[in-house]
Design a protein that fits this description.
By secondary structure, the protein is mostly helical. The chain contains six helices and no strands. Helix 1 runs antiparallel to helix 5, helix 1 packs parallel to helix 6 and helix 3 runs antiparallel to helix 6.
Length: 155
């Protein structure tokens, strides 16, 4: 079973690394002004999506699996009127990714199936499911970031 655990951990860690690399590919070229500008009168800024992904990972994996004590303010992730500079937001995102990977690597074979509960997350019944769901959620928003970044580059 240890081999399966190592395979799962390596695969998920690689996927989280891929998601982070894709996010940086599209976000790094943006100026701070572009990072926080909505290209449309509706929707989110790239910056607020990065704050959201950071909060999501810090809560669902950090607080609920790694027991970091993180307290989430989800609404503020989308509405912060005094957001941090782009570089600070990206460092926080990178720390969240590193925490997720570190937490994954600490899981023993029997840990993946441990019961899991969290606010606003009725689908993930165990730890394995929350790591997979958070990875999918992150890549979903990276797709939105790609779209927004392309639009910001045009304007």
């Amino acid at each position: 079973m240890a081999e399966v655990n190592e395979t799962v951990t390596a695969g998920l860690a690689a996927y989280y690394g891929f998601v982070a690399a894709q996010l940086h590919k599209w976000v790094d070229p943006l100026s701070n002004e572009q990072f926080w500008r909505k290209p449309y009168p509706y929707g989110n800024t790239v910056g607020h999506l990065v704050l959201h992904l950071t909060g999501n990972l810090n809560y669902y994996i950090g607080a609920r699996v790694a027991e970091t004590g993180y307290v989430r303010d989800r609404d503020r992730e989308f509405t912060d009127q005094q957001p941090p500079p782009k570089e600070e937001a990206l460092r926080a995102f990178d720390r969240a990714i590193a925490m997720v990977v570190s937490t994954m690597r600490k899981q023993k074979t029997e840990d993946w199936g441990k019961a899991y509960t969290a606010e606003r997350e009725p689908e993930a019944a165990d730890r394995f499911q929350i790591f997979v769901r958070c990875a999918g959620h992150a890549y979903h928003h990276v797709g939105q970031i790609v779209y927004l970044s392309r639009e910001l580059a045009r304007t």
